[in-house]
Amino acid sequence: MLDFLLTSDAIMALLTLTFLEIILGIDNIVFISIAANKLPENQRSKATNIGLLLAMLQRIILLFFVSFLIGLKEPFYTIDTSWLHIGISWQAIILFAGGLFLIYKSTSEIREKVETPEHDEDKIKGAKIKSLSQAITQILIIDFIFSIDSILTAVGMTNGLHENHNYNLVLMIIAVIISIAVMIGFANPIRKFIDTHPSIQILGLAFLILIGFMLITEAAHLSHTSFFGKTVGAIPKGYLYFAIAFSLFVEFLNYKAIKKKK
């Protein structure tokens, strides 16, 4: 296990995934803060911390469930015609549906952030919260909504890294624990940074579109899909790491240029 976690692929996946989890978790923190701020001041930090810890447990449970489904690799139905071959398994269905969901969700989120940035905040502000238990319940509901794309991102970044699926699961759990710990410890500084540089969050959502596309191609590859005799190959994760690193480098150059101009 330790040998796997110290490999370059595992370290790159962990760093990239933790970064994406934190960036995607900013909206989660904002909405959790709105829910907690409806309580008396002495209960707000308690509600936020308890809510985030329970959210972490919720995500880990969901990771186990999704990982179990992805572990079902054997095809239960095969489409075999003169021009198309697909071995449909639960693994392929989860990856394909997850890829479509990430592309749809990311595109919708980017549109919302550009067109109506206050829409989701207004909905949460309208919710009635009178007690600590109600606030924690609201936080768990909010986190469940945000967990779906977070978990699919984790699956996309780690799937296929190791033959033993449990090793990939451990990597995902470590990334979730680190990201939640960072959110608890540095929520306000990170939120202020994102508020000052909103393009970082848009960039994070754009990365999800890449991961969504990779999940779809991986589903096709793992189900041995072939069109007119041409099989679908796997996309090496190194390409994804390069795209993310290059985009962040360009964003850093833009940040330095704007700072210099000011």
Automatic annotation (TrEMBL):
Similarity-based family: Belongs to the TerC family.
- InterPro entries, sorted: Integral_membrane_TerC (IPR005496), MFS_trans_sf (IPR036259)
Q: Where in the cell is it found?
A: Membrane
Q: Topology relative to the membrane, per the entry?
A: Multi-pass membrane protein
Species source reads: Hanstruepera neustonica
Q: What is its main location?
A: membrane
Q: Please spell out the taxonomic lineage of the organism that makes this protein.
A: Bacteria, Pseudomonadati, Bacteroidota, Flavobacteriia, Flavobacteriales
Instruction: State the UniProt keywords alphabetically.
Output: Membrane, Transmembrane, Transmembrane helix
GO cellular component terms, semicolon-separated: membrane
Can you tell me where the transmembrane regions are? Answer: 12-35, 47-70, 82-104, 135-157, 169-188, 200-219, 239-258
Please report the name of this protein according to its UniProt entry: TerC family protein
Give the highest taxon in the source lineage: Bacteria
PANTHER family documented for this protein: MEMBRANE BOUND PREDICTED REDOX MODULATOR (PTHR30238), SLL1022 PROTEIN (PTHR30238:SF4)
